[in-house]
Predict the 3D structure of the following.
Amino acid sequence: MGSGVPLRFVLEPGRTVDEAVAGGMKAAGCIGGFVAFKGGTCEPFRYVMPAGSTDPLHAAWYSETYEPAGPVDVTRACAIVGIRDGKPFLHCHGVWRTADGLKAGHMLAPQTIVAEPIEVTGIGFADATFEAMPDAETNFTLFEPVHKALGDGGAAHPRMLLAKVRPNEDIDFAIEEICRRHGFAAANVYGIGSLNEVRFTDGRAIDSYATEVLIRSGRVSRIGGELRSRLEIDVVDMDGAIHSGELVRGDNPVCVTFELVIEAAD
């Protein structure tokens, strides 16, 4: 559990995305959380997509780095903000429009430059963050929620928390359990991660064991006395195809990790 505060600030042109976000978070007195942006241009822009692992140590890996020519318009993106090696670090998934059409994946924020002012919103924490740590189960360095008890975020909303979901857990079930554990009768859910194959409520299926996912809309409600999670996502598969829709509850296991900010809405 952390003390979350609403965020709204502008990414200034000429800075890398990670530098610009880190500056906005620091000005708000926050050390972690998430930000979302819809619209905005970056140039140069660098990203990767999910890919198969080249070694037996990892369940999946990343594609080559894509370097689209010219300006790239960010349709929507969400970044989990934390710390790696003692410095601010971003984990960002999104959808963007390049000269070759609509693409999606994992933005390389240190290599992507803000080309025009971009307004972002989100939730920041003065006393908690995500910290990158080695993970023995996946052999990746992954974000873990940690309590820091630092800083002063101003008028805080204590009914917010940072969470991580581990491999093979169904993402909806995991979110419901987190809300039960913390006494949330309803919640808004934000975050990014990866799923092992994807099943949508309209019957579509993505048979890709590694994906990159962005939650477009997440909500937990009490239905018939039970908590029910409902997630609408964007997802890119290993072939670069982009899919959007509502997830089937109980049939979408996490691949490597899923990082969340959950806001009580009761």
In short: The radius of gyration is 17 Å. Residues 32 and 129 are 4 Å apart (CA to CA). The longest strand covers residues 72-84.
